Amino acid sequence: MLSLPSQSDATWKFADWLELRAIGSSRRKSTLAELLSGLDVGRDEESEDSADADAERDRLKAEVLDEIDRRINCIGASYPFRLGRRGAVLEFVAPADNVGAIYLFCLFLSHIADRSIVPADLAPEADNRVRDLFQVCCTVAAAGHVEGEASCFGWPRKDGLPFLDALKTLYKRIGEGAPHDEAPAGAPVYIKDGGIDVIAWRPAVDGMGITAYFVGQVASGKNWSEKSVKADEDTFHRFWFKSQIASPRTYGMFIPFCLEPESPVVGETPEKRIEGYLYRLTFQFGHMFYRYRIPEMAAKGLLQIEAGRFVGRAQELEDIRRWVDGYCGRLSEAAEI
C-alpha cells in the first residue's frame, strides 16, 4: 500500500501520490478527496481555527491541481492520465504510448529510493538494467533536443568497444572532430566513458560538418547534484581529440526527478521558487532535462527516428514499455492485498 506524503512535503509528491494511486486502483482512478481526507487537512479542528483549516485545505488543493496542470501542459496528449472537469478525479489512461511510457518510467524511478510514498517492499528495483534503460530514454530525448542524431555512449556500451575505439567510430559517423589514433601520454589505463553518457548532433544539409552538438550526463540516483558534465566535457574534448569539434559545444544533465528547491523562501510562490532553482541549476549543469522536459524532447526524438536518422538503442524503447507495464501490474496487485 502507498503511504500518504506529509503536509510539509513538496507539492510534486502529492501529485505523484494521485498518479500512483490511480495506477494501482481497480477503478484506475484517484481523487483529491481521498488524498485530502487521508491527510486530515481541515478536519477535527477547533471551531476558532476552522477558517484557517479551510484555507489550508484550499491552498493545498489549488497547488496540487496546478502541479497536475503543469504536467498536462508539459507532456501534452501523451500524458497517461486524464483530469476530470472539476479536477476532483485523476484517471489512469492505459496503455500509454512511447512518450507516456517514458513519463511513467521517470515517475517510477523517482521513487526507487524515496520512501515518503512507496514503501521499500513495493519500490522499483534499482538494478543496472533499469538505470541503463534510462540512458536509452535520454538518448532519444537528446536526439529531439538537437533535432538530429544521438548515441548512447555511456558505459556499458552495447557494442563493447574500448573507449578510444568507440570514440573513433562515433566521430567518424558525426563527421567532425577527430580523436587521437592512440591513447595520449598520461591517459588512464582503464576508462569507461569519460563522464559522457549521451552525445547528440545535427548533420548539416550539405554533408560537411554539423550544425548542433550536445553532450550530456545521465543520473538516476539521488546524488545527481554532486555530478556535473561541465568539467568532464572539457577534459573529454581537450584530452582525447587531436582535432577539436569546431561547432559550439552545449551540454546538460538528465534526471528522472521533479525539481525540488532545497528550502522555500517566505512569500514565494511554488512556480517562482522552482523557476529560480532551475535558473541556478542551468549555470551549474547546463541544459536541465528532468521529468517534465524529457518526454517532450523524446517526442521530438521519435520524429527523428521516423525520419530515418540514427538514434542509438532506440529499439529498446519497447523494453522500457514492458518494464513500465510490469511495474504498473505490481502496483495493481499490491492495492488488492
Structural class, please? alpha+beta
Give, in order, the helices and strands. HEHHEEHHEHEEEHEEHEHH
- What kind of assembly state do the chains in view correspond to? single chain
What is the percent of helical residues?
40-55%
How far apart lie the N and C ends?
A: 8 Å
How much of the residues is beta strand, in percent? 5-15%
Q: pLDDT average, as an integer?
A: 91
Strand order, biggest sheet? 4-6-7-9-10
CA-based gyration radius: 22 Å
Quick one: biggest sheet? 5 strands, mixed
Number of helices: 10
Total beta-strand segments: 10
What features would you describe in this structure?
By secondary structure, the protein is α+β, with helices and mostly antiparallel strands. It has two domains: 1-94, no CATH class; 128-320, no CATH class. Helix content is 45%, strand content 12%. The protein has ten helices and ten strands. The strands form three sheets. Strands 4-6-7-9-10 form a five-stranded mixed sheet, with helices on both faces. Strands 1-3-2 form a three-stranded antiparallel sheet. α8 links the parallel β9 and β10 (287-289). The longest helix has 26 residues, at 50-75. The relative contact order is 0.15. The model has no long low-confidence stretch (mean pLDDT 91).
